[in-house]
Design a protein that fits this description.
450 residues; five-stranded parallel sheet; alpha/beta; three-stranded mixed sheet; 13% strand; 13 helices
């Protein structure tokens, strides 16, 4: 007796069509991946679109041509896929070693330019009579575009030495650092070395969102991250600096962790944050189109900026301050306080320091258009946000006086001339502090001897 089995080509074809239509970048970012992972990317979004088109075409073929497809065919296909997947997993296990992924990072410079802690800088070496200064920060401290012997630590040390004081300056910092990784790096430094003065080089457009998210903007590199608990107290970090991630001994499992596990963790972290800034649907008066023009041409990697989540250099100037920005400011302030407490526990002083270039945000209030949304940007809001973070801390703001201070048109780091000027001016601000500390130390030693 012949059993008639139903042809499943049409329903499966309809399912494929629905799947191809539904799997948009926005849907995947809403459900699994962090915002900005797919939408607006140069390669991932077009590749996803091609895959969706292919799925829809397969579905249409099955609906229109209706090839014979029964449960028997599906079972055979499932067995074949399972066997192929198992064989592929075995092949991967034997032939492929995934590159290591760790939480956080250190120097991007060649190893010959590392100090003992793995950051770009000269060897950490001093004697008892030396006054030690530590530059703590991000890519401005690392200064990859500046020759090794002229990097900020060297210029600052040379200017501080003009007083006749025995001063040594060292560097701890890497591109993309916020105060979270800076705190962990400082803990490692102070476990081995002395810092009489720690100069925390803040980057206003970067630090706040660097601290807020679990990953960096470019490449979504995972990093140790802190958070505020329900009482507003600093908690964390979620991982250790250099902790191995997605390192399952089963290679297929490690790949799964990298493709889905880490992005999903990032998405979960993003979802627990307070409400981000809500842009305007329309606006009256003059509209600035600079952001849209930068986006269209991807000038300065503008498409990496995600204003929907405030994972953006531009977010600190948005007005009014969103609940997410308020949380991020509180988090940054709590991290800075923890840095101050750590330095003080080792007998040192903390100074926070920023460079004023008027480059992070527009110089005046305005409405900016980006992808059909309108954003109110305010210089006053920008300044108020950072005044809130640094209230009560010993803070210096040094203005660039070099006309062409940038490394390049799309690189907003200080070039060698500007860095020299900023370090010279910073040294003048630090000299009175160093002299006062030296004087207090001398009086203390004199009192002990008496």
């Amino acid at each position: 007796m012949t059993t008639h089995r139903r042809n499943l080509a049409a329903p499966i074809g309809l399912l494929a069509i629905a799947l191809g239509i539904a799997l948009s970048g926005r849907f995947l970012e809403w459900t699994i991946f962090p915002a900005g992972t797919i939408v607006g990317t140069d390669r991932r979004e077009p590749l996803l679109l091609l895959c969706r088109i292919a799925i829809v075409f397969v579905g249409l073929y099955m609906v229109v041509r209706r090839p014979r497809l029964t449960t028997v065919h599906l079972v055979v296909a499932a067995i074949g896929i399972a066997v192929g997947a198992f064989a592929g997993a075995l092949l991967l296990q034997v032939a492929y070693v995934p590159p290591p992924i760790t939480s956080g990072w250190k120097a991007f410079a060649p190893a010959k330019e590392w100090n003992q802690l793995g950051y770009r800088g000269h060897p950490i070496s001093y004697v008892d009579d030396d006054y030690t200064v530590l530059l703590l920060g991000d890519s401005q401290v690392e200064a990859m575009a500046i020759p090794y012997d002229d990097m900020p630590e060297r210029r600052l040390e040379s200017y501080l030495a003009t007083t006749g004081e025995k001063v040594r300056v060292f560097s701890i910092g890497a591109g993309g650092y916020g105060q979270d990784q800076e705190l962990l790096a400082l803990e490692r430094y102070l476990a081995k070395y002395r810092a009489d003065l720690v100069v925390l080089w803040q980057t206003p457009g970067n630090d706040i969102w660097n601290n807020l998210f679990k990953t960096h903007m470019s490449g979504n590199n995972p990093k140790p991250t802190y958070w505020l608990d329900d009482a507003g107290h600093l908690a964390g970090p979620n991982e250790g600096l250099g902790q191995p991630l997605a390192n399952s001994p089963i290679v297929a499992g490690a790949i799964w962790q990298r493709v889905f596990g880490l992005p999903w963790q990032d998405k979960r972290w993003e979802r627990r944050l307070p409400q981000p800034y809500t842009p305007l649907d329309k606006a009256d008066g003059p509209i600035h189109r600079e952001w849209q023009e930068r986006w269209d041409k991807n000038i300065g990697r503008m498409r990496d900026e995600n204003l929907d989540t405030e994972k953006s250099h531009l977010a600190v100037g948005l007005r009014p301050r969103s609940p997410r920005m308020q949380y991020a400011l509180d988090l940054t302030r709590a991290l800075t306080r923890r840095l101050q407490e750590l330095v003080a526990s080792h007998g040192g002083k903390l100074v926070t320091f920023q460079v004023d270039t008027d480059d992070s945000i527009p110089k005046a209030d305005g409405i900016y258009l980006l992808n059909g949304k309108y954003y109110r940007v305010s210089k006053d809001q920008y300044e108020a946000n950072w005044a809130y973070v640094n209230a009560g801390f010993d803070t210096e703001l040094v203005r660039t006086t070099v006309k062409d201070w940038r490394v390049g048109p799309e690189d907003g780091h200080l070039n060698a001339r500007a860095d020299d000027q900023v370090m010279r001016d910073l040294s003048e601000r630090l000299k009175p502090r160093i002299a006062a500390a030296r004087s207090a130390h001398s009086r203390m030693r004199k009192g002990d001897s008496e």
